[in-house]
């Protein structure tokens, strides 16, 4: 009985820290490796994932098919502010690659690792036991297909290994569709429109044994992005995205984010935005990026709006050719 209660305690604390919320009773979400956005560009724009230009597998895989590139690759690291009373610093580390198989087909592979915390264990009497080092990792595979007239569909499958005081393995999948149009004109200026919708992280609960289970953070996400070439060397963009987590059923979460981007000479970008989240998960977002000869370097910082949130920064490096 002591082990069972201890594992549930660890599960809830880990889930709260990974999502940047310390009010577990209000939040209740676990497996945040599936919900944290590893992409610095979209993170800086209010976590509006429809504005993806890199890390396509974890945002919008079909967006890669509208580029003239054959291969895309990215690595990213997200570091969260240290939480009071918990040892260690949580980090999310991501690597992904995508390859265009033909004009209408692209395949993707990726890996994510989340960990870095040390949680103290206690028995039912409050006596300290051993420390716990929770971590998760996933292997992710994706496929995107361009149907024509700007419409595309994609699917992502994930295998997850999760370690708390015991191990659990499982799987989840995501299905999505998008629309893109590069022939849009705004005030006689060329523009690029992206619309995206998905149902993400569909799968059975992870079973850690002793009756302790964690539900997948299944959610619906809808968003859009619009960029306009206002002058020869000046481009402005905006993005808006919403996510609704309806699993676990007793811990539903609604999030809405949006942002702006200014790009000079297709090489230097400044970004800012805001993301609203239930249960005090809101953030101001900001960041910058550089592109040169196929390389891109992006950085984003998310600033909590309440004492019960969590600040974190994200850095990503990518290359396309």
Task: Give a written overview of the molecule.
By secondary structure, the protein is mostly beta strands. 8% of the residues lie in helices and 59% in strands. The chain is built from three helices and 17 strands. The chain has helices at 2-19, 24-27, 40-44; strands at 71-80, 87-102, 105-122, 128-132, 135-148, 151-163, 167-186, 189-202, 206-207, 213-214, 219-231, 234-245, 253-264, 268-277, 283-292, 295-304, 312-320. The strands form two sheets. It has a 14-stranded antiparallel barrel. Strands 9-10 form a two-stranded antiparallel ribbon. The longest helix is centred in the first third of the chain and has 18 residues, at 2-19. Residues 1-29 have low confidence and may be disordered.
